Amino acid sequence: MPFRNPLLPEHFLAWAEPPDEGGDELLRIVSWRRALTLKGHSFREFSREVVPLLDGRTGIDRICDEVADIFAREDLEAALEMLGGQGVVVEGGGADAAALPAGLQPQLAWLSEAAPEGRAAQRHLTAARVVLFGGGGPGAAAARGLAAAGIGELLIVDPAEVGASDSYFSPLFRPGDAGSLRAEALADALAELAPDCRIRTRTTRPDSPQDIAALIEGAAMVLCCLDAGELNLALKLNRACRDLGMRWLAGGMEGLDLVVGPGFSGDPDAACYMCWRMREVACAANPQARFALERHLDRLRRDLSARRENLAMGADIVGGMMAAEAVAVLTGAGEPALDGRFLVVELPGLRQEKHGVLRKPGCPVCGGTAR
């Protein structure tokens, strides 16, 4: 089918080279991932007159009229169809393309290379509702990434107040925010950066898995960036997501280690977050001491990130990777990389390891046996 509004995405560079000794010209269309070289005639005219019109908004009829004195319509449509077959010319959005922020062009270019739907996959992000638990360092970085990516709606669940270290972990928090509700301070900062994103907050602690289920029901995905001191809330989130079959992804800064994952697909036969925590205890150098720590964290119910050994850069790494995984999954640009797995990045050293999560026999949440 002929293009209606042909688009040569901006990440492609296109230019014509002068004729060789035989009179043939070269047309080069190049991006970081691909290179197309064509040999023939009239490429200088094509590059000068046609390429500027391939903006995704100009209709094919107008393009053909504009260059009718140079190219016959059937020849131009055949050339565009050939370029479309090579994946360098795609269908644009017509007048609707102007509705997207100009700053999204790098992301649209990435989608055109990575997602099966190409640039059209952006609509999945625009329609998506994501719930974020924990607005501290990693959560703030993830929220910024999601808002910048054009997520339609973001709910931030965080009962904590802005502490002195929050502005260290994220520039979204200002020193004057200290003492205010962290979710609201983060929402205000994000509203300036991404005014098209609908941002809501929940600043009281959910009392039960049922309360959490009411918050996350209908969401496309849940991200959990809660500090270890909020283990009790993370465990309630696990039960709620398990009951709803909800996709969610955890992550955090664990001392000298950065942990991205585990991810959970909502599959009732897969391991759950409790399975992971129980196995972490069992595999610890001193399981009894680790179990005592888990029980203590379960009772604390408050954010400890200001008291733990962390780096500001670690928050950006964890939150950024979680947001990138969410964008890839929601747009179909990649298979979930962390379902049933978690990535550990060591600081210092940047050594990375990926581990699987197995079901734990006797798990009080999922039972630990496949159905």
UniProtKB/TrEMBL annotation:
GO terms for molecular function: nucleotidyltransferase activity; thiosulfate-cyanide sulfurtransferase activity; ubiquitin-like modifier activating enzyme activity. One of its GO terms (cellular component) is cytoplasm. Residues 118-364 form the THIF-type NAD/FAD binding fold domain. It comes from the Bacteria. Pfam families: ThiF. InterPro entries: Bacteriocin_synth_cyclodeHase, ThiF/MoeB/HesA, ThiF_NAD_FAD-bd, Ubiquitin-activating_enz. NCBIfam families: cyclo_dehyd_2 (TIGR03882). This is UBA/THIF-type NAD/FAD binding protein.
